[in-house]
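During the reporting period the student researcher (J.K.) took over the structure-prediction task from the postdoctoral fellow and processed the backlog of single-chain submissions. One of the processed entries is reproduced below for the supervisory committee.
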Amino acid sequence: MAKFLSDEWIEAANSAATTNPSFTSAAAGKDLGVQFVVTDVPDGDDVEYFLSIKGGHPQIAKGALEDADVTVTSTYENASAIAQNDINVQMAFMTGKVKVAGNLATLMLHQNVIAAWVGLSEGMETVY
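J.K. obtained the following structure tokens:
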């Protein structure tokens, strides 16, 4: 089991994103860049990672994504609650637990990809 947001977790998420049929189906033919920023991480610094889909090929990696369509910022507490399906992403956004900056129209057009991403992270064996 990988610790949430660790290098091992990012690697596992990337592997799952490229092999999970539900996620690859949702990503097929899409182009999307989402930068995630998680603040108030218990063991130290904020964590930045991204989901990049180009021509339907997903990549999840640590770091900054140049020219991301949107940036999603949340605290560790809220990010882990979303990953565990304890709170709904849309409700978290509507209640201010998640901040989104950038092209919201692009994000709305790719809701199925975001839902598949949340489903993917729920299925990963993770230590929080």
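The committee noted the following: The longest strand covers residues 32-39.
J.K. will present the remaining backlog at the next meeting.
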